[in-house]
Amino acid sequence: MRPDSSRRVLSHVIGFDDAPFARSHRGDVLVVGAVFAGQRLEGVLSTRVRRDGANAAARLAACIEASRFRPQLQAVLLQGIALAGFNVVDLAALGRSTGLPVLVVARREPGLERIRSALERRVPGGRRKWRLIEAAGPMEPLAGVYVQRHGLSPADARTLLTGLQLHGLMPEPLRVAHLVAGGVTTGESRHRA
Fold it and tell me: To the nearest whole percent, how much of the chain has pLDDT over 70?
């Protein structure tokens, strides 16, 4: 483990969350990205990913790469490894495409056996999606939340999280992305991020 003095300070990040959608919805779902410089909101990006599809990593990477914020970005945060239902993000592909470390954050440890069962029984391409979840590694408790890391040490992930936990345990870029996505889609944000 590296000493504390050599930890990377990642101050420019983007946090993505998907917008709410009806259970009956098929097609694309809005995903919002909140760009932060330290603790300050710098901008908002958006893209769309297919409900239960397989294009999340590619769409997020394209959104990031086309953005004027790209030169300053140092990390990507995701609120969960899947967007738009079961459009599982391939963390390694997203990291390769952008050259950025990726941190998945969840409030609670997910019920992996329940997720595996749902993927394998109900979702097209479910086995491949389950392999992406397995490849991302186990969810680790860190700074009061659960995380999966790609390209970040535990120490760097902790530093990143604690620097962005302004109004609770959820990092501010994810909290803001959640609120914006809900407000834009339903007219008013609901539920806590």
Answer: 94
